[in-house]
Each structure stands twice: as structure tokens, then as C-alpha cells.
Design a protein that fits this description.
The complex is a heterodimer of chains A (277) and B (293). With 277 residues, chain A is mainly α. Chain A has eleven helices and two strands. With 293 residues, chain B is mainly alpha-helical. Chain B has one domain. The chains are: A mainly alpha (277), B mainly alpha (293).
């Protein structure tokens, strides 16, 4: 039971990292990036290839760099259509399908497992330890960026009022791109943290997107504390359901919680009055 | 000519004529099955266009509704009395699809779309959790009702025509006008005294009934139902494409585009399976970019 609890906390931290990336793009650029799940798995697939030809640290850095380059291209596509939210949603679905199609073409539909860290650290699996450290470090980095850097202040200003930020001389386009790249970085780190825990396949990006959307909706738009709480609630409920009911129950949990929250509090448990309805 | 609300219906005549004479020219039951499946797919797309694109509620969980309706039919067909299985299939379908009504009543615009996107992914775990009911990943067989294929074929065509007649009546009725009002400005519609929630519930029930009727014939042709139906491809992606090819909300054009895309998907599956997703995604983006232009 302690193992389940520990595993839930680590998975919850990774979920939070994923959701924070999605939230940043939604908050700063007002983009609903449904290709985010595909962005998460693309790093894993790139890394699986690079691990065969490069030493591990270099493979990890290179896969993140390549994912950032792809993220830049995705941002450019979404930026063009961002004024029309429905259109940007359709475009992001198309991008997700495209990425899934390319992965299917190159790697096929087979399951792929990646090993990054073996053995144990402080009595727990090294992979779990790595996932926890990577997630916490990324969130700390995000806190530092948002609190102490000009970029963070610009991101906050654009998120608050884009037109006013533009009048104040802030380059909204550049700020949006930077925030998208930070989100891509989080997706890549989350990918490296979580994919060694589960086998991956081309379609799994949609599952991760489901998790991200559930965390964002449940936690409330733009609420980091909400993201943390809902990530933990989600991962813990998933683990307990998988243990007591069976693996399929785990996949149903995000939707069940989402519907419950929509019925009771559509702005999310920790939403700051942002209207969804 | 354009002011006539039924004008678009004349465009239905050529594809309907083709459908009607096909069994007289082509003897192959297999080809006839493909024809009728593409036709029913076109009707599913037309319903999507009318109720969701027209109202501005882009339901990305539509495949959940379609698959739920198919499962409802298959489950109800286990009852041997037809007089019981038809209302039972409607009740099961309404119960399963009511889950997607919740975000419709609580959310708007892109948030509604995003929340509904999650629904199709729930069906596979539900089927695995209750294999006795849904048959797990393999799905369940559907009890055949029609004694010969010709009667199934022509009944399906008749259902499609009936669906268009109902949609046309709704389009020119108060409900059709209110659906357009909701798309343009829901708050204004509400403040004008329109009971928006009531219209949403009514349209949801109508969609569910129509889809259930179509899936009754669809499952009779296919003979089985599985969770694959909930997969966003082909239904959702092709529905999004078909509705954007011509003016959104013009169900008749979406119907024709839906048929064409169904055949395109068949060709892609047969000859370019590896590249299918890539081609579909490029097509989807291209159609929306051209539409925007």
C-alpha cells in the first residue's frame, strides 16, 4: 500500500508538470493545444532512437532539443489561427494526428519501453526517484522564471491583458513563443520521467492529453495549487482503482472525476472565478 | 431560389437516385453494403453538421454518442421481442448519451469542445470493465433482423430520407432559428426569453434518437459493434472535414462530402494504410485553411 501511495505521488508530480505546460499555453497565448499529448510522446520516441546511438545524457539533451524545435513549428502553426479558437482546436487535432501518423510510419504500432535509470536510490526505484526529482526541479524552475525574471513578468502581463501588454511595449509574439517552448520543455521532461514507467505506443498521446485536460479542468484554469491538488487526487484515485477494481478503471477515473466536477463546480475545484460556462 | 429553405434538398436527388438504382445494376452484396455504409455515414455527418456546427457547440465527443447508440442497439437486440428491443435500445442510448449532455449544459465554446473530447476515450475502458455487456475489446455481435439484404438496403435509404425531412422541418421551425441564435449569442438568446437549456436538452434527445435509428441499420449491415467505433477516425475527423467543405450548417452538402470522405478512407485503408493519418491530418488542415480564406 505504501508503494501504491508513493507511486501515486510521483505520478501526480509528473501529471502536474504536464498540466502546468498546458496551462501556460492556455493562459499566455489563449491556445487550446490538443497536440500536447503528441508532444509528450514524441520526445520518448526520439529518445528511444537516440539512446541507441548516443550516450544517455547526450541522448536526453538532444531529444529535448529536437522536441523544442518541433514545438517551435507547432507554435507557429497554432499562432496563425489562434484568433479563431475552434479553428485552432481543429488545427491542433490535425497536428496531433500528423505526429501520430509519422510515429506509426517510422516505429509501427508496437509497444516500446525505455529504460533510463536502473537500481534503487534511497530505497526506491531510481526511475521513480528521477521522475520525482525532474518534476520538482522543473516546477522550481517555473517558479523562478515567473517570480524573478522579466520573461515571467511579461508572461503574466500578456496572460492578464494582451492588448495592454502590447501597448506597454511587450513583444507578445515572442512572449507567446517563449511560453510555448517552456510548455514543450515541460512536456519533454514529463515524457522522460513517465515513459520509462509505462510502455508507450503511438496512440498513447491521447491518453496523456486526457489526463492533462482532466487535471486542468478539475484544478481550475490558471491555478497552480489547483493543478497540484487535482494531479494528486487523480493519480491516487487511479492507483487505488487500478489496484482494487482493475486496470481499465484507471483509464475511466479522469472522466468520472471530470463529470463530477462539471456538475458540481464547472470552474474547477480551485478555479479563480474563470468562467467556463 | 435560394430563399426556399428546402432548395438544398434538391441536391439530394442525384445521390439518392444512384443509391436506389445500385442494387439493380450491381449484384454484389459486398459492394451494396459499402454503398449503404457510406450513405449512413453521410447521414451521421449531416446530423452532426445540423445540430452541432449550426449551434456552435462543436461536440468532439460525437463518436462516443455514435458508438454508444450502436452498443445500445446491439444490447437491446438480445431481447427477442422487437416491440421491446426498439424502445429498449432508445432508452439505453439516451441513458449512455446523457453523460455528454452535462458539459453541454455547463460549458460553452472551446471549453465545451475540449471537455467532450474526453468522452470517446472512456468507452474502451468501460467495455473492458464490463465484458459481459460490451464484449470487451472484441465487441458484440448484433442479431440480424432483416430476412434479405434488399429490404435492409432500401429501409436504410428510407431512414436517411426521413432524417433529412425531419432536419428540414426543424431547420425552418422555431428550434432551428433558436439554434442559430444560440450560436450567434447565447446570452442574448437567453435574455430574449429563450429557454436555452430546454432547447439544448431537446436537440440532444433528437440527435440521440436519430443516431440510434441510423446505428440500428448500420449495425445490421456490419453485424457487430466494437469500441473502435468511438475512435475519432473516421467519424469525428471526417465530420469536421465534411462540415467545413461547404457552408457550415448546410447538412445536405455535408452529407455528400461525408459519403465522399468515407470512400476516400476506404481507399486510404486499402492502398496507403501507413500514410493514412498523415494524409488525413494534412487534408483536415488544408480544408480549414481554405475555408478560412
Amino acid at each position: 500500500m505504501i508503494e501504491i501511495f508513493l507511486f501515486s505521488i510521483i505520478t501526480g508530480l509528473v501529471y502536474m508538470l504536464m498540466a502546468t505546460g498546458f496551462n501556460i499555453v492556455l493562459g499566455v497565448s489563449k491556445m487550446v493545444n490538443l497536440a500536447y499529448g503528441a508532444q509528450i510522446i514524441i520526445t520518448a520516441y526520439i529518445m528511444s532512437t537516440l539512446l541507441d546511438i548516443l550516450p544517455m545524457p547526450l541522448a536526453i539533451i538532444s531529444s529535448i532539443a529536437l522536441s523544442l524545435a518541433i514545438g517551435g513549428a507547432i507554435w507557429q502553426s497554432l499562432w496563425i489561427f489562434r484568433r479563431d479558437l475552434i479553428l485552432s482546436i481543429v488545427v491542433s487535432i490535425a497536428i496531433a494526428l500528423f505526429i501520430e501518423g509519422v510515429i506509426l510510419k517510422i516505429y509501427g504500432a508496437r509497444l516500446l519501453s525505455i529504460t533510463i535509470a536502473g537500481g534503487e536510490v534511497l530505497g526506491i526505484s531510481s526511475q521513480w526517484f528521477l521522475a520525482a526529482v525532474a518534476s520538482i526541479a522543473s516546477m522550481a524552475l517555473f517558479y523562478i522564471i515567473m517570480t524573478y525574471t522579466m520573461l515571467g513578468k511579461r508572461m503574466a502581463a500578456v496572460a492578464e491583458n494582451e492588448d495592454l501588454a502590447r501597448y506597454m511595449g511587450i513583444n507578445v509574439r515572442l512572449t507567446s513563443m517563449a511560453s510555448f517552448l517552456i510548455a514543450t520543455l515541460f512536456a519533454s521532461i514529463a515524457s522522460i520521467a513517465i515513459t520509462p514507467l509505462y510502455a508507450i505506443y503511438p496512440h498513447i498521446g491521447w491518453y496523456y492529453l486526457t489526463i492533462v485536460l482532466a487535471v486542468v479542468v478539475i484544478g481550475g484554469l490558471g491555478s497552480i495549487a489547483g493543478s497540484l491538488a487535482s494531479s494528486m487526487i487523480l493519480s491516487l484515485t487511479q492507483s487505488v482503482a487500478a489496484y482494487y477494481i482493475g486496470s481499465p478503471a484507471k483509464d475511466l477515473i479522469p472522466l468520472a472525476i471530470l463529470i463530477s466536477v462539471l456538475v458540481a463546480k464547472p470552474e474547477g475545484i480551485f478555479g479563480r472565478g474563470v468562467r467556463w460556462a | 431560389m435560394k430563399s426556399n429553405p428546402y432548395w438544398d434538398l434538391y441536391i439530394l436527388a442525384p445521390p439518392l437516385a444512384v443509391m436506389i438504382i445500385t442494387p439493380l445494376i450491381i449484384g454484389s452484396i459486398y459492394l451494396q453494403s459499402l454503398m449503404i455504409l457510406s450513405y449512413l455515414f453521410g447521414v451521421i455527418v449531416a446530423i452532426y453538421d445540423f445540430f452541432y456546427i449550426r449551434s456552435g457547440y462543436i461536440n468532439l465527443g460525437y463518436t462516443y454518442m455514435v458508438a454508444s447508440a450502436a452498443f445500445a442497439v446491439a444490447i437491446a437486440m438480445r431481447i427477442h421481442s422487437m416491440s421491446l428491443s426498439i424502445p429498449a435500445s432508445l432508452l439505453i442510448s439516451l441513458a449512455m448519451c446523457s453523460a455528454i449532455l452535462i458539459p453541454m449544459l455547463r460549458l460553452r465554446g472551446p471549453f465545451y469542445s475540449v471537455a467532450t473530447l474526453l468522452y470517446p476515450f472512456a468507452l474502451a475502458p468501460i467495455a473492458r470493465l464490463f465484458p459481459d455487456v460490451f464484449g470487451g475489446d472484441a465487441g458484440i455481435y448484433v442479431r440480424p433482423i432483416f430476412s434479405d439484404f434488399t429490404s435492409l438496403y432500401y429501409s436504410s435509404i428510407a431512414l436517411g430520407v426521413l432524417t433529412f425531412a425531419v432536419v428540414s422541418i426543424i431547420m425552418s421551425s422555431r428550434v432551428g432559428v433558436i439554434l442559430t441564435m444560440i450560436r450567434d449569442d447565447e446570452i442574448l438568446a437567453e435574455s430574449s426569453g429563450v429557454r436555452v437549456d430546454r432547447i439544448k436538452i431537446l436537440s440532444h434527445i433528437l440527435v440521440t434518437i436519430m443516431i440510434t435509428a441510423i446505428m440500428f441499420f448500420y449495425t445490421q449491415v456490419v453485424g457487430a459493434v466494437s469500441v473502435e467505433l468511438a475512435d475519432p477516425i473516421p467519424i469525428l475527423i471526417y465530420a469536421l472535414m465534411a462540415t467545413a467543405i461547404y457552408k457550415p450548417g448546410s447538412s445536405v452538402y455535408s452529407f455528400i462530402a461525408g459519403i465522399a470522405l468515407w470512400w476516400l478512407d476506404g481507399l486510404l485503408r486499402a492502398y496507403l494504410y501507413d500514410l493514412r493519418l498523415i494524409i488525413i491530418s494534412i487534408l483536415l488542415i488544408s480544408i480549414y485553411i481554405l475555408r478560412r480564406g
